[in-house]
Amino acid sequence: METMNSGLASLHKILKDETRSKAILLLNEKGAMSYTDLMDELGVVSTGLLNYHLKVLGDLVQKNDAGQYSLTERGKLASRLLVEFPEGTDQMERRKRQRFYWTAVAVSQLVILVTVWALHSTGYIDFARAVQSSVAAASGVALAYIGYKAWSNRPEPGSSREKSRMKVGYTVGGAWLGLVVGFFGPVLLTLISISFGGPNFMRLIDNTIDGVLYLFFLTSVALGGGIGGYYLGRRNGFSKPRWMTWIDEKLGF
Fold first, then answer.
1. Which residues of 184-215 are buried (b: 16+ CB within 10 A; e: fewer)?
2. Structural contact between residues 229 and 76, judged by C-beta atoms closer than 8 angstroms
3. Which DSSP symbol is given to 60?
4. Whole domain around residue 181: which residue ranges?
5. Pick from 66, 84, 102: which residue ends a domain?
6. Is the predicted pLDDT of residue 223 greater than 90, yes or no?
């Protein structure tokens, strides 16, 4: 039973993509198709993209001596799943993505809040700064919701729509990283400094910088991070990072 469940989970991971599921249904209907016909029917605009999907389909498809593609026995099982449970596979994948994503959001927010109030209890930051940081962390839930909506409606790999989305992703990701560095950088420097008998940088910041200047500082590092993220993305052609592809394919998100 465990082997069967793992096999079905593997199929769900492969077939969650609309192009791959359409390819399975086409081959089930036609029996066998040439590479060119399959490309035309799927509406795929590049051979690289089709090769990518065929690679992911793996042992669900096979190629005969005439160069045509057809379904293997496992591929026929996949086609039956798509025909008999067209909504079930989508629902399972959607629930899996929701569980993982919101668990990650909850854990990250908890880590931030625990860190903030631990710093306050040990005297590294004052009460006002702890409240400011807590409010900023809580507001991140709204950003997480926006990210989830974009994540659950992913475009085709390599498409112009994906590149447009990654342009925004690189920029927003850079801004977020800038905020993380801007917040945790002084904390880390303070911990290192104190461990070597040096000054408490967080206390010095609290004594010399008011709330408005601190917000200006965080805004500046976020802006700088966003600009840096955009130029990094442009240098990479706004392609999807390998770690994101790894998450999509290996973990099935």
1. eebbeebeebbeeeeebbbeebbeeeeeeebe
2. no
3. G
4. 91-251
5. 84
6. yes
